[in-house]
Every structure is written in C-alpha cells, then in structure tokens.
Amino acid sequence: MSQFEAKQWVRLRRDHLQTYAPATARLLDGRKGKVLDVFIPLGKKEALVKVYWTPRRPGEKELVLEHPEAELERIVG
Description:
Blueprint: E1 9-12, H1 22-28, E2 32-39, E3 48-53, E4 63-68, E5 72-74
Antiparallel strand pairs: 1-2, 1-5, 2-3, 3-4
C-alpha cells in the first residue's frame, strides 16, 4: 500500500536532489507539488508517484514528473 494519496502535498527529499541535473535540482529544491496519481508500472515492484510541481513565480513553467516513492516526503499541515 502506498503512503501517498491523490491531492496530497509533497516535496522532493533533499538527499535525492543530487541524482538530478543541476538545473532540474535547482528548479525542484524547496518546491511543493501535488500528487496526481500513484501507480505501479507493469513489470516493476516499486510504485511511482506522478506529481504536479507548482510554479513559484509567474514566469515559471508547470511541471508534471514521475518519481519513485522513496524520493518524496509528505508536507504536513
């Protein structure tokens, strides 16, 4: 069972930021996202979480990325 549900706010764990390219890591650092879907791809054992990353400033693009559950932490409150 997944620890994440749809419409829940999450952020990327800081210890997993180093696995991304520097530009992407800067973009996702401290940004909050909303879970759209949690699914297990065919042939895999680990669930992926589809996240909508909200823009911080008016000129930024919206992002929708898929992450393993281990890379995310729930924002409480």
